[in-house]
Specification:
elongated, Arc Repressor Mutant, subunit A, D-Maltodextrin-Binding Protein, domain 2, alpha/beta, two-stranded antiparallel ribbon, 3 domains
Length: 290
């Protein structure tokens, strides 16, 4: 049994086609088919039922697939570990959109000063996609908000952050030192789209306080929400880190007690190869103002 044979077998299983598998692996179809046949001969088992153009895993094929994927992943991670040692390494970091533009620039600057030879690759995406990439080995570290519930992942708290109310400049509530939910019962709300966990978090906070927000607009990015607030289209609740932008047209006020917060965390796979730089990057995230 050869690694090349396992790689070709996995490609066929994942694409459902010898033709697509050959294209993915960059070899001719006869070459790929020959190696899969040789693997079947070595194992003494048929791994695929070839039904015309359709390719279906047999029971032995199903049994082999998970193990083959694990073997190939382990080999890839071993190769990367050696390459990291020789070249200084690469770190793949993913963060949710309500964190990435506010927390990462300063963190990356501090990290790069300490580890100038580590190549950083940054990904901005929603929580569920970041978790899938962490599990698949496509990311080394994820930055997101709690809760994260998966026993395969290590979850490390970074810090808690308050949420604040964003108001149009000149709004009647800007005269108050803090804003309570009772103050905004009749206000139009501008919130993140419900595909973002932060949008759900804001709605949950409001509903726990007895307020069903009158949502008049939803957006994909906090920057869009804040621009709409500045245009006088409504009020919004945003993370404290997003309130550092003092663009004219909007004002931020703390929310009354109990002050809503979110807790940010660093997440990585417990069993996959972890570059030494993962711990260092988590440390610079933990002290965002330092």
């Amino acid at each position: 049994m050869e690694l090349r044979q396992l790689r070709y077998f996995v490609a066929v299983a994942e694409t459902g086609s010898f033709t697509r598998a050959a294209a993915r692996e960059g070899v001719t179809q006869p070459t790929l088919s020959e190696q899969v046949i040789n693997l079947e001969k070595a194992l003494g088992k048929r791994l695929f039922d070839r039904l015309g153009r359709a390719v279906v895993l047999t029971d032995p094929g199903h049994d082999l697939l998970g193990r083959a994927q694990s073997i190939l992943a382990a080999v890839g991670e071993a190769e990367r570990a050696v390459r990291d040692t020789a070249e200084g390494g690469r770190l793949r970091v993913g963060a949710i959109p309500t964190v990435a533009p506010y927390l990462l620039p300063a963190a990356v600057t501090r990290f790069a000063a300490r580890f100038p030879h580590v190549q950083l690759h940054l990904v901005e995406d929603r929580t569920e996609r970041l978790l899938a990439d962490l599990l698949a080995g496509n990311l080394d570290l994820g930055v997101m908000a709690l809760p994260v519930r998966d026993d395969r992942l290590h979850v490390e708290k970074l810090f808690a952050e308050s949420l604040v109310m964003a108001l149009p400049a000149g709004h009647r509530l800007t005269k108050k030192a803090e804003v309570r939910l009772a103050d905004v019962v009749d206000e139009p709300f501008i919130l993140l789209d419900d595909v973002h966990c932060f949008g759900d978090q804001v709605l949950s906070f409001c509903r726990r306080g007895g307020l069903e927000p009158r949502v008049v607009c939803r957006g994909e990015q906090i920057a869009t929400l804040l621009a709409m607030v500045a245009a006088g289209r409504g009020v919004s609740v945003v993370p404290q880190m997003a309130a550092g932008d003092e663009t004219p047209g909007r004002v931020y006020r703390p929310l009354g007690k109990p002050t809503p917060t979110r807790t940010l965390c660093a997440v990585w796979h417990k069993q996959r190869y972890r570059p030494p730089s993962v711990r260092a990057f988590a440390d610079v995230l933990r002290a965002p103002a330092g």
